[in-house]
C-alpha cells in the first residue's frame, strides 16, 4: 500500500474517533455503491451525516475540502441515496467534510465543516 493510502487511512481513523468523541454514532465506514464510496456515515440528533474525509500533507496548492468537486459530490449523493434506501432510513441527511492537515509542528489537525454541501450541489 502506498504512503498516501496509509495517510488516508490514518485520517479516516482520526475523523471517526473525533466524531465519536463528539457524540456521533458511526453507522458505516467506506460504504460503497457502484464506483462511489462514502468515507463515514454517522448519526447524531436524528440526522444521518455523510462525511467525506480529505487529507493532505500540505495546503500549498489547495485546502483539503477544496478537492471535493462537483463530480465527487454527485457520487457521494448517489451513494448516500442508495444507503438510505438499502437501510430503510428516512432521516434528514447532512453532508459534512472533515479535513486533516499537519500543523506547523507536524501534528495532524482536524477541521470539521458541517453542512459543507447540499444534495442539489451535485447538479
Automatic annotation (TrEMBL):
This is UPF0102 protein C1631_018445. Belongs to the UPF0102 family. GO terms for molecular function: nucleic acid binding. CDD domains: PoNe_Nuclease (cd20736). It comes from the Bacteria. The lineage of its organism: Bacteria, Pseudomonadati, Bacteroidota, Flavobacteriia, Flavobacteriales. InterPro entries: Restrct_endonuc-II-like (IPR011335), tRNA_endonuc-like_dom_sf (IPR011856), UPF0102_YraN-like (IPR003509). It holds the Pfam family UPF0102.
Amino acid at each position: 500500500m502506498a504512503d498516501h493510502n496509509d495517510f488516508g487511512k490514518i485520517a479516516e481513523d482520526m475523523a471517526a474517533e473525533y466524531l465519536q468523541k463528539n457524540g456521533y454514532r458511526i453507522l458505516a465506514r467506506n460504504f460503497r455503491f457502484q464506483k462511489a464510496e462514502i468515507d463515514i456515515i454517522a448519526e447524531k440528533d436524528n440526522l444521518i451525516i455523510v462525511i467525506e474525509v480529505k487529507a493532505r500533507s500540505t495546503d500549498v496548492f489547495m485546502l483539503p475540502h477544496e478537492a471535493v468537486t462537483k463530480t465527487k459530490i454527485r457520487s457521494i449523493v448517489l451513494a448516500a441515496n442508495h444507503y438510505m434506501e438499502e437501510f430503510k432510513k428516512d432521516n434528514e441527511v447532512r453532508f459534512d467534510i472533515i479535513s486533516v492537515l499537519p500543523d506547523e509542528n507536524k501534528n495532524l489537525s482536524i477541521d470539521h465543516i458541517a453542512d459543507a454541501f447540499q444534495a442539489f450541489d451535485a447538479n
